[in-house]
Amino acid sequence: MARNNLSGGGVQMETFQELLCSPSSVGGLPKQSNHLAVVNVILSLTAILGNSLILVSLRKECYLHPPSKLLYRCLATTDLLIGLISQPLFAIYWISIANEHWNLCRYIRDAALVTSYAFCCLSLFTMMSISVDRLLALLLGLRYKQTVTLKRTSIILAAVSVLSGVAALCYILDYRMTLWFGYIYIPSCLLISVVSYTKIFRTLIHHQVQVRLQSSQPNSLNISRYRKAVYSALWVQLALVVCYTPYIIVEIVIVEGNRITFSSHLSVIRGIAATLVYSNSTLNPFLYCWKINEVRQAVEQTIRQTLCRPWKGGVQMETYQELLCSPSLAGGLQQQSIHLAVVNGILSLTAILGNFLILVALRKESSLNPPSKLLYRCLATTDLLVGLVSQPLYVIYWISIVNENWNLCRYSRNATYVTIYAFCGVSLGTITAISIDRLLALLLGLRYKQTVTLKRTNIILAAIWVLSGVAALCYILDYRINLWYGYIGVPSCLLISMVSYTKIFHTLVHHQAQVQVHVQLQSSQPNSLNISRYRKAVYSALWVQLALVACYTPGTFLEIENVHNRTLSPQFVFSRGIGATLLYFNSTLNPFLYYWKISEVRQAVKQTIRQVLCCPWN
Where is the G-protein coupled receptors family 1 profile domain (predicted)? Predict the structure, then answer.
């Protein structure tokens, strides 16, 4: 078992941060690291879904006092950000340990700790603010609404957000600064919360008789409602304390011990404790639904509106989705609908034939590295499914508009959106994985084949499929959730790809002389061919990436413009249809790009066509 001692004086020892990414401390933990990564990915998905639903529900809820609702929205937003940013980074941290990629481990470790400290500090302060808010509601009485205003609450939360961010960034300067901030900040927040709840329950107990004597039935109901609000906030507070305490204890034991034996066992324990902290972001949405009646009712209403048509309230307004299948908007587009249906029908056939041929060719091709070939096969499979499933549904959607069959229009519209969001999410994730694969091939060198294995690539692709499917199904819950996934996921994938290719070309340009010298010293033709082959592979992947961006951009901009302005017209619906058709065209274009830019695929395709048309010849 690997061990490292942290002690003062004499020989300079590895710092605490370095031990978190040291082969001697956390090496040899592939199984435990993979388990922690998988658990954090699952918790991340549930945190994202749960808190997205809570935020949508809180937006509709109107019974909570605005400052109180703002505090819960801030807490849910923080939990959502933990699921979106911190937990994925923490999962990547453990994956990098499993793969023994220590440079990536250090960068991800710092990013995960900085974001986690910032979000956790904000969560802790928000919980303290909720306890103070409940105390002020009891003490101020009728003056509560005049004193605790939305503006003042917003200013306080903004100030604490800045303070939490600054405290987290201190980690980069010196880890001890962040620790000392935590030693002061955490007990202070917990002490204020304890004092607030103690004062609340003491006041309620000692003045229960007076409250009953002085209050009429409406006030009695207010007191009952107040008690429920206090108990709800207290449950959330206790959940936070339970989830945070093990990690705080482990952190103090590791850092403050006079002589610490930092072993791989302790690293796993610390990872489990950190995972328990992250689980608080998954637990909170369930507590809101269980303990807060207003939130539970809003969530039920949101789900009810998703699963069936809303039946309550005044005049029912057509939603954005319904407008896409309404005679007032989509009617009168018979000629344009026929054109779009025909074009998409043709593109569907070419996508099926082209990608089927590519999949057959890739199955025969043996010179590509298996993980790289798997990524291209996944991309071709996604494009094949677009041609087999999404585009035929899109054709049915336009034909139903021509025939004014609005029920069929709605069903085909929903099915089209869910499938295309899922497949486009997989395509985007796979393209991003290809860019990372090319970067790792450059950075890892001879260790590339040992690090980027077929099994690990399969796991990553499975995670991409699950995440894309979950994100697509959010369209059924609320169209806005799906949009926000797009606002975050699409730029993130494009940014990762851009950084990867920038790093690749920067490395190739600045180290070209060194590579040439190395080749001359070795005087071996294979190395020269490997560099040349690597350049071709990078340019091939980059062409596929640029084609995706070019095909997706018009439809993305039209979708954003449509959602924010809500000025829908038949002409805009037709323009939106053209943008979606261009997006589908990417599935037809990709096979031609593979054939044009990847020589191995081109040779395999030629061989396949020869075998189909006639007997093979040399």
Answer: 50-288, 354-594
